[in-house]
Amino acid sequence: MKLRWRALLGGVLLLTGILLTACSAEAPETLTKPPIEEPDDQGQTITINPPVTPKVGDPNAKYVVQTRIADFHLIDNNKGLVWGVTHNELRLYDTHDGGKTWNNISPSENVQFQDKLEYGKDISFTDSRHGWVVRQNLDKTATVILRTADGGQSWDVSALPSGDHVSSIQYVNPTTGWIMAYVKLNEQDQQKLLYHTTDGGATWNKVAQSSGTTSNKTGSGLPDRGSLAGMSFSSNNQGFVAINLDSSVKLYKTSNQGKTWTPVANRIQGCPQAKAEAQQSLKGSSSSYWIPVLCYGANGTKYNGLFTNDTGAQWSGVPLGLSSNINSIIPGRTFLNEKEGWIITETGMSRTLDGGKTWTSLTGNKVLPLKLKDYPRSVKLRFASSSVGWLLLERLDDKKSLLLKTTDGGANWRIL
């Protein structure tokens, strides 16, 4: 693997001497049994390709590891990534054959991580080759940005100028991206800072910030009040943010690369207390997104959605006609486009083809209902097409996870 190093900004002096090479595990000389990375983990068992193409007939061509998957990113029907943090080391794997085999593309084990990483907050990929990983501010040290342009074969490093904590990251192409960071002011308020890069993340420039005084009047239009739920930009300088504030969802838009922001009206009917989750992009358009919204009431939770097809300039609120009781676990739900979506229920999966107006239960599936009994929390559900989707389930007692895949639109699932 190649070794590369870049001169860093002030905060990155902490990492001087760290060799950022992809730490793909080497195939052992002799294999009598498949080696297990974490024998006490009992996580996902996946087959890993060796870092160097083996000779034909080499018994060590592939090996098996066991890892606890915390999140994933589905690129298309055949490509995707999974990752977790074990002993403060990021374990990052990608697949190009629909999950049959995986490649270890982890950065150096010397770069330590404390928490699990979330896509859109800590990790962003524009394709299978160009990706970025945020090592969040730890003990007042630098917030480090790792980046790869060769699918994880090598990693470069940079840092945010002030080392703030990152709440959202998004790239629109291999060179252009944004990071929203924050400084905590109190339990409810955060000073928000927006950074922009045009060189793939080598350098970052601050383009906007809120006042830092919990005042509603700021030069950029970003409020100190509330916490960021999500952020997205398009390639034409438009963008939006969703902020959870006082049991309501506040939306802001920009049309000048984030320099100034203005509030956007949104109406979520029958939702006295609302909370937005991270936005999801819709297939077929770089400017179409939807935001899952939880509506809390005395009798339980209703599930709504906010949809936009112009990168947040206008929004439409859609009640999805679904609800759960107070003690229920929030289900995983996703939309492929404005019409087609899926949701996990306690007994399986339902699908809509009319934007959530009606839902049809997908019956006949034996694997999913069985696994939901042992892994009742749906961490993430995503579809790359009308047929191919991934689902990450988690147990409640020990947070152990299981990744499943469908190739028939959610009717049947198998363990990856």
From TrEMBL:
Disordered as annotated region, ranges: 31-53
The Photosynthesis system II assembly factor Ycf48/Hcf136-like domain, residue ranges: 121-264
CDD domains, sorted: Sialidase_non-viral
Family matches, as PROSITE patterns: PROKAR_LIPOPROTEIN (PS51257)
InterPro entries: PSII_CF48-like_dom, WD40/YVTN_repeat-like_dom_sf
Record's signal peptide: 1-27
Family matches, as SUPFAM superfamilies: Oligoxyloglucan reducing end-specific cellobiohydrolase (SSF110296)
Superkingdom per UniProt: Bacteria
GO biological process: photosynthesis
Pfam families, alphabetized: PSII_BNR
Keyword list, A-Z: Photosynthesis, Photosystem II, Receptor, Signal
Residues forming coiled coils: none
Gene3D superfamilies the UniProt entry points to: YVTN repeat-like/Quinoprotein amine dehydrogenase (2.130.10.10)
Record's GO cellular component terms: photosystem II
PANTHER family in the record: PHOTOSYSTEM II STABILITY/ASSEMBLY FACTOR HCF136, CHLOROPLASTIC, PHOTOSYSTEM II STABILITY_ASSEMBLY FACTOR HCF136, CHLOROPLASTIC
Protein name: VPS10 domain-containing receptor SorCS3
Species per Swiss-Prot/TrEMBL record: Paenibacillus polymyxa (Bacillus polymyxa)
